[in-house]
């Protein structure tokens, strides 16, 4: 008998997460506590409920640039090894409580060196937090695997150094590289040397593209830079036409992305907040899912969007009428697209995701 699809049952379903920013997922109480410890007095609120509301409402801005402004506060409290370890540890705790069984969490080391830490110091602290979080989750009966992506800010000139950092830590928990930040005026081709370095070292990378900018950013990310995945990619809808009879026609770029099974790291709530799409109902997720693009469900920034993987899945299910088999497909899509070795991906799919969904589907 099929389990009813509700907020609680979705929370218990296994999930795989590919696009989650560490500095966008802090607990409001943690922001307040660390700010008090380090003497940071620029927070816009002094209690966690009001602060949570401020982050959510300020982030719902209609523009990627304005959406990114509140990160100045979270980054400000992530400048010591202790703070980085705590935030990473709590990230794992929160994801495990939401039944996430695999996650790739990303962050930009260059944003966390104001207190004198080196890039290596920053990554060491975060990876230690992830590892300790995994152990604590396992002890609580919630097994989760968390790996790291190191991100370079696209407006800066440190991407090659961050790519080298990714390779130095590739056997310690860093599984890939990313660029992020405001897209307009900062095309991914500014960082070709970093992407070439990753390819020369047989390493994986994703690129934020097609979120705040259109098809050219997607074309550059795939055609020129060779991205393995696309962060967001919602503007691919501009290369897709739907006829009055419902027939879907793909342009050349859309067709090659589908044919090559390029994964889309889609973040529905965040995409509405940044103005990438007007509403969840108008989000291209369903069009892409129906035409068999490799779409995945992600949180982007859990604090800013006041979201979890369960909330994102429920939102999509309620909007587009998805059932358990659809949610399972999106989860397997994500796990297939993870940057860990194939045998590890397959083990999580066959030993964790499929058996637990089989119980839900009935």
In short:
The protein is built from 16 helices and ten strands. The chain has 362 residues and is an alpha/beta fold.
Proportion of β residues? 5-15%
Instruction: Please state the average pLDDT score.
Output: 95
Q: Judging by the overall fold, what is the CATH architecture?
A: Alpha-Beta Barrel
- Residue share in helices? 40-55%
- Give me the number of helical elements: 16
Total beta-strand segments: 10
Structure in words:
Helix content is 48%, strand content 14%. The protein has 16 helices and ten strands. The protein has helices spanning 7-12, 28-38, 48-59, 64-68, 71-76, 81-97, 119-139, 159-168, 192-200, 215-224, 252-259, 268-273, 285-290, 309-320, 324-336, 342-361, and strands at residues 15-21, 100-107, 145-153, 174-180, 205-209, 229-232, 240-242, 248-250, 264-266, 295-297. The record marks 232 as: Important for catalytic activity.
Topology:
Elements: H1 7-12, E1 15-21, H2 28-38, H3 48-59, H4 64-68, H5 71-76, H6 81-97, E2 100-107, H7 119-139, E3 145-153, H8 159-168, E4 174-180, H9 192-200, E5 205-209, H10 215-224, E6 229-232, E7 240-242, E8 248-250, H11 252-259, E9 264-266, H12 268-273, H13 285-290, E10 295-297, H14 309-320, H15 324-336, H16 342-361
Parallel strand pairs: 1-2, 2-3, 3-4, 4-5, 5-6, 6-9, 9-10
Antiparallel strand pairs: 7-8
Helix pairs in contact: 2-3, 6-7, 8-9, 15-16
Note the main attributes of this structure:
eight-stranded parallel beta sheet, 16 helices, TIM Barrel
């Amino acid at each position: 008998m099929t389990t009813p699809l509700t907020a609680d049952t979705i929370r218990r379903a296994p999930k795989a997460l590919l696009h989650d920013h560490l500095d966008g997922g802090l607990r409001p109480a943690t922001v307040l506590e660390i700010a008090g410890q380090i003497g940071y007095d620029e927070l816009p609120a002094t209690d966690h409920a009001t602060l949570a509301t401020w982050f959510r409402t300020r982030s719902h801005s209609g523009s990627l640039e304005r959406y990114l402004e509140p990160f100045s506060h979270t980054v400000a409290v992530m400048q010591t090894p202790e703070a980085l370890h705590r935030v990473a540890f709590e990230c794992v705790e929160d994801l495990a409580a939401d039944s996430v069984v695999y996650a790739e969490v990303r962050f930009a080391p260059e944003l966390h060196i104001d207190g004198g830490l080196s890039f290596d110091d920053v990554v060491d602290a975060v990876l230690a937090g992830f590892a300790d979080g995994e152990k604590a989750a396992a002890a609580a009966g919630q097994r989760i695997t968390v790996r790291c992506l190191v991100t370079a800010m696209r407006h800066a000139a440190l991407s090659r150094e961050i790519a080298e950092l990714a390779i130095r830590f590739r056997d310690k928990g860093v599984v890939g590289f990313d660029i992020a930040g405001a897209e307009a005026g900062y095309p991914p081709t500014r960082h070709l040397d970093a992407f070439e370095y990753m390819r020369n070292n047989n390493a994986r990378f994703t690129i934020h593209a097609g979120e705040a900018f259109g098809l050219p950013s997607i074309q550059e990310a795939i055609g020129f830079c060779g991205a393995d995945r696309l962060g967001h990619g919602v503007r691919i809808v501009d290369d897709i036409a739907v006829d009055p009879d419902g027939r879907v026609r793909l342009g050349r770029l859309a067709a090659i992305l589908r044919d090559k099974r390029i994964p889309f790291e889609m973040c529905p709530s965040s995409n509405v907040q940044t103005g990438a799409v007007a509403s969840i109902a108008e989000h291209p997720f369903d069009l892409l899912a129906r035409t068999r693009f490799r779409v995945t469900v992600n949180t982007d920034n859990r604090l800013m969007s006041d979201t979890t993987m369960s909330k994102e899945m429920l939102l999509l299910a309620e909007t587009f009428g998805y059932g358990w088999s659809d949610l399972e497909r999106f989860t397997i899509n994500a796990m297939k697209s993870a940057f860990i070795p194939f045998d590890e991906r397959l083990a999580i799919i066959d030993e964790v995701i499929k058996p637990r969904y089989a119980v839900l589907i009935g």
